[in-house]
Amino acid sequence: MRLMRFGYPHYQVSKGLVDDLFDSFLYNDTHACYCNQPATNVFETETEFRLELAVPGVKKEQVSLNFKDDVLTVKAEAEKTDETKTNSDGYLRKEFRTYNFEKQFNVPETVNAENITARFENGILYVTLPKKEKQAEKAPVAINIQ
Predict the structure, then answer these.
(1) What is the pLDDT of residues 36-64, one digit of tens each?
(2) Sign, Cα dihedral of 84, 90, 94, 99
(3) All structural domains of the chain
(4) Tens-place pLDDT, residues 77-107
(5) How many other C-beta atoms lie within 10 A of the C-beta of residue 144?
(6) How far is the C-alpha of 36 from the C-alpha of 38, rounded, in Å?
(7) Integer angstrom CA distances of residue 20 from 31, 38, 63, 84, 124
(8) Are 46 and 19 in contact (CB under 8 A)?
(9) In whole angstroms, what is the distance from residue 76 CA to residue 120 CA?
(10) What are the CA-CA distances from residue 135 to residues 88, 110, 131, 138 (Å)?
(11) How far is the C-alpha of 111 from the C-alpha of 47, rounded, in Å?
């Protein structure tokens, strides 16, 4: 049973398997990602969920996190690079790219939304979602019948 579900609101469908195959031979872009989604690691312990999103080339100020209706949204708006500047820098080929993305996670109700924390370190965004403390089950109450 998956407790966290992933949403891809801006998922782009690939052109086709044959086109992708030829593009990879012609342009040597076998590692290009058509969906513009960061790689994500998800961990679960007894007390929390932890997310690690790889966002190289993106600054901390460009990332925003929102939590609403049990959905955690991670969004980044990277600065667009100027192609004329790239050519004047002496590059013959430039494969490093920054891109905008938005990724959503359906979070279970057991997460304590007020205590979600995040930190950004070395191109990786770490998000900690603590779980609510389990309440002890109450003993059944006897009801008198009159």
Answers:
(1) 788 999 999 999 999 999 988 888 999 99
(2) negative
(3) 5-130 (2.60.40.790)
(4) 877 655 555 556 777 887 777 778 999 999 9
(5) 4
(6) 7
(7) 11, 20, 30, 28, 29
(8) no
(9) 13
(10) 63, 11, 12, 9
(11) 9
